């Protein structure tokens, strides 16, 4: 990476801030019935982008909403493309580095209904969207093709709690294969349009521990979960083969055209999970969050475990590409705890860099409160508080805290300046 400046950013996704009437999620979740515009960012984006300047970030991760751009199959809405173009232009005018996510969980409703990821046609449908959009953002350097492919997979194809709401492991494998083929296609397209582009996925990685450390079955389950959830995608980027290994089962190997198709690696890190073997649960596995480290749980019940970020980053370092924390954050109504969360994680990152890890950026999730999928509107991740009745934005103490961090140690996290 030529550009060595450390990226201090915040991350958002279009649907969570703007909603979209033509998206699959729009009818999936009843919470959106009364509030389809989410935080009304589609209308208020100009004011919202001014907050980035106030914060003092030098980077902003946002996504484009496919269902606004192609609300019906093959019908392109130029005004919607223009909307996202204006976001990129505003960032450029403010000297803020954009990081553009092409796919962040949502799809046009027609895509999910007619195709969805397990069908072969999903590849041509997605790539036709990618071909439409990528040349319009040639000036964007940082790209995330897919946000959290494994979350999409577990939610959409195993748990069935996200569209398309399927519960079928075989279809899940096919869906993952198609998504990663699309990553490879989008990677090539982006590079054709911008040879110095930096492209990745944003991979959700969690620290994983056995529920009962003394129990060999729990340890086995925790190890298998780590291998699959955290490591298998990283290994596939290195080898070109996705290997799925479950205890007492034959490994499944899926060849994929993704070897080396990565210019940096995006890691979304939030928490640690504890796992145990439980034959009465799906796939024999039960998961929960426990406050083992004494740092407490977030409003969503997730354990605050800053040390875990080192574990996941040290595995990601195997890729030998720069790493960017594309998401890290906490849902809480308590600003003081949010600031403390930021401090603990940034301190840990600083130590990781001092130990030689090539970490080039940190994006807090999220700029402002938004629609948190199945959790609705009350998971307050924002540096800015949103009143969802008036759509008024108010800075939290954590916004000030983050600004101060950026101002005071702006360059000290930089690679090469670690001594
Ligand atoms: C991540 C998602 C993001 C947001 C945060 C809290 O898994 O990428 O959209 O919901 O969790």
How would you portray this structure in words?
- The chain is of the alpha/beta class and 419 residues long.
- It has a single domain (7-203, 306-409), classed as TIM Barrel (Alpha-Beta Barrel), CATH 3.20.20.80.
- It has 13 helices and 13 strands.
- The strands form 3 sheets. The protein has an 8-stranded parallel barrel with strand order 1-2-3-4-5-8-10-11, surrounded by 6 helices. Strands 6-7 form a two-stranded antiparallel ribbon. It has a two-stranded antiparallel ribbon with strand order 12-13.
- Helix 12 (335-354) runs parallel beside helix 13.
- The two termini are 20 Å apart.
- Beta-D-fucopyranose (FCB) binds next to loops.
- Beta-D-fucopyranose binds at residues 13, 16, 147-148, 151, 204, 268, 327, 365, 372-373, 381.
Task: Report a brief summary of the structure.
The chain has 419 residues and is α/β, with parallel strands linked by helices. It has 13 helices and 13 strands. An eight-stranded parallel β-barrel has the order 1-2-3-4-5-8-10-11, surrounded by six helices.
Q: Which term fits the overall shape?
A: globular
What is the residue-mean pLDDT, rounded to a whole number?
Answer: 95
Q: Spatial order of the strands in the main sheet?
A: 1-2-3-4-5-8-10-11
Category from helices, strands and their pairing: alpha/beta
CATH superfamily membership: Glycosidases
**How many DSSP E strands?**
13
Oligomerization category of the chains in this entry: single chain
Tell me the domain tally: 1
**How far apart lie the N and C ends?**
20 Å
- Elements, N to C (H/E): EHHHEHHEHHEHHEHEEEEHEHEEEH
Number of helices: 13
Which ligands accompany this protein? Answer: beta-D-fucopyranose
- CATH structural architecture: Alpha-Beta Barrel
């Amino acid at each position: 990476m030529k550009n060595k400046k450390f990226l201090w950013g915040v991350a958002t996704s279009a649907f969570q801030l703007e909603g979209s009437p033509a998206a699959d999620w729009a009818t999936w979740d009843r919470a959106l019935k009364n509030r389809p515009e989410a935080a009304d960012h589609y209308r208020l984006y100009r004011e919202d982008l001014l907050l980035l300047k106030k914060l003092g970030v030098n980077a902003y991760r946002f996504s484009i909403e496919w269902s606004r751009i192609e609300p019906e199959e093959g019908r392109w809405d130029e005004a919607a493309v223009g909307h996202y173009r204006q976001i990129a232009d505003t960032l450029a005018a403010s000297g803020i580095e954009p990081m553009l996510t092409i796919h962040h969980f949502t799809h046009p409703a027609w895509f999910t209904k007619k195709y969805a990821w397990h069908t072969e046609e999903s590849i041509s449908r997605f790539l036709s969207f990618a071909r439409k959009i990528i040349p319009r953002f040639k000036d964007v350097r940082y790209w995330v093709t897919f946000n959290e492919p494994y979350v999409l997979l577990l939610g959409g194809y195993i748990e069935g709690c996200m569209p398309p709401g399927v519960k079928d492991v075989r279809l899940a494998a096919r869906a993952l294969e198609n998504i990663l083929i699309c990553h490879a296609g989008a990677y090539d397209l982006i590079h054709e349009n911008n040879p110095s582009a930096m492209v990745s996925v944003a991979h959700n990685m969690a620290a994983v521990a056995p529920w009962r450390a003394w129990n060999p079955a729990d340890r086995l389950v925790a190890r298998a979960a780590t291998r699959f959830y955290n490591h298998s995608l990283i290994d596939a980027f290195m080898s070109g083969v996705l290997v799925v290994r479950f205890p007492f089962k034959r490994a499944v190997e899926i060849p994929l055209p993704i070897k080396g198709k990565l210019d940096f690696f995006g890691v979304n890190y939030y928490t640690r999970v504890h796992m145990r073997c439980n034959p009465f649960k799906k796939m024999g596995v039960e998961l929960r969050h426990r406050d083992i480290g004494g740092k407490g749980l977030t409003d969503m019940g997730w354990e605050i475990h800053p040390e875990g970020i080192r574990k996941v980053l040290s595995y990601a370092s195997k890729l030998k590409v720069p790493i960017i924390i594309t998401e890290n954050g906490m849902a809480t109504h308590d600003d003081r705890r949010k600031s403390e969360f930021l401090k603990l994680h940034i301190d840990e990152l600083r130590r990781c860099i001092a130990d030689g890890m090539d970490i080039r950026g940190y994006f807090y999730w999220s700029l402002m409160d938004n629609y948190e999928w199945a959790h609705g509107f009350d998971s307050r991740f924002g540096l800015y508080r949103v009143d969802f009745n008036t759509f008024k934005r108010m800075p939290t103490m954590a916004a000030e805290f983050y600004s101060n961090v950026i101002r005071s140690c702006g360059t000290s996290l930089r690679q090469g300046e670690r001594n």
